[in-house]
Amino acid sequence: MYVQQRESRLGRSWTASRAVGIPTVVGLLAPSVALGSGWPYWHGHTILASLAVLMAVSLGVAGALLTFGVGSQKTGLALITAALLYGLAWLGARDKGALPLLSEFAQSIFFLVLGVGILLHGRPRFESRLEWFWTGGAFVVLVVQQAIIIAVTAPEDLGYDPDVVWPNLGVSASATDSWLMLASVGYGLLALAFVAVLAVQRRRLHGTDRRRGYPLLVVSGLFAIIAALIQLPIMEPGSSLDNTMTARGAQGASAIMVPLALFASAIRAKWEEQTLAWRVIRRVGQPDPTSVERALRDVLDDPTLKMWLWLPTWGVFVDDHGRVYQQAQAANPQHDVSKFEIRTASEEPLAICTVAAGVRRSVVQAAIEAATPAMKAAQLQMEQVEQVRSLQDRIMEAEQEGRRKLARDLHDGVQQSLAALRLDLRRLMRNAPQNTTMHQQLFESSERISTTINELRDITRGLHPPTLSEHGLAGALEEAAEGLGGQVRLNVPPQRLHPRVELALYYVLIEALTNAVKHARARTIEVGVDLKKHIVVGRVTDDGIGEATVTLGGGLHGVDDRVRAMRGHWQLDSAPGRGTSLTVEIPLSEPPL
Q: How confident is the model at residue 91 (pLDDT cuts 50, 70, 90)?
């Protein structure tokens, strides 16, 4: 125990020293490189020296804090690299040997690395081809084009001493002017493309991330445009060394706000993540599947978020309506979403969440971590609900078996006996004198028995229609529609389904159909069935008076019980004067036969 506590203290000490020490070291190293590169040029240029130190410090410290403290590690490394490159870019002030050549490439790569770091802010990698295209274009404009500029210009054209190391190809002055003009256009287009990519990035962000992206977009965009405009005057042949270095200092001064904006954005994002826990707990309240899902939606500002809880007894993920994960996805396909699989400390499945792709993964993970205890409580509650649902399913199965047995008994017993009795009466009628009281009584008794047989046949069909077993859902619904006249239009595929699914869907559609005929005063009724990959969708629509409601003990209340027992979902739309539409979705426990 003592060793563990000691190791824990050592770990905290290392974390604290790293968070404080490394930014301090980098903060001292970056300006040292800048001062060393420009020495002794800085003796006569104190303002430029101050700006260079300030720029190097802001880049280096912000980069170190992002790398070892909060924010995007890759952006932090890019800022540290940019700080060192910016310092090396001042080697040109020495104007000796190969230092100006190294300075030009350091300056170009500085812009490239800083731009990539800004684009990577808040994400582990590029998320679109547009970002990759800009990076490739930036490499061509800033590095390849810089190499060509050096090759087609003399060092004195850019303000350097003619004796420095410079691979001049000796091209004509007109060719040099043309290429420098083309390079100026390239810088401008690259800056505008950078702003456009940042704008597209911000549009893909979600909720608070999008709002937080405005300052960074404005600051980075202004820096890119100002840097391109400052570059234009020194792209003309004959520029002096002072002009070149002054332009470099102005570009550095315009970029000072970029690392500060990046660091401020990272701090704000980290603060939002730290406050997620109490926000989630406050919004959940009494934990159940619906309240947990609603809390995550509110905190992450994502109305499309969906959550499925793992039920160990059944080995499936279900949502708050009891719909299984794969089946619900097939019914409501979602695009551009990120899936998060949540597990317990013992690596047991707990839940699956789908979140809009624009929401930062770190924020989602923080919210899910805060909601995990509530998810566990909701999982237990869902487990109990599913046990009740399973019991209800078994009760309905037993009820249906009783219906089938009663239908067989009525058909094979009572109905057959009545048919035999009718035959006996008709035989007696043939032997009785015509136009007598006895003949009339026998005829009336025979007719009453025929009526009773028809009523028994209707009762038997209602208990369990034989056509459903013989010809499936399409045949049973067609038989029912024929008895209602020509006002019913059917669109039912002939494919057979699992018997339990067929039976449940038949009773639901017949209930809705009966209500439309008896109460809605509809002129036309449409019944449709649509088979999908994991579900079957049934729909009954009429043009009647509407105003259908679910009442306790009513037929539609029975629809709710039956659909829920099948892990299904149903919806009733019945506005006054606009007809009624009942839609039911039932998972396919077995594929179509």
A: very high
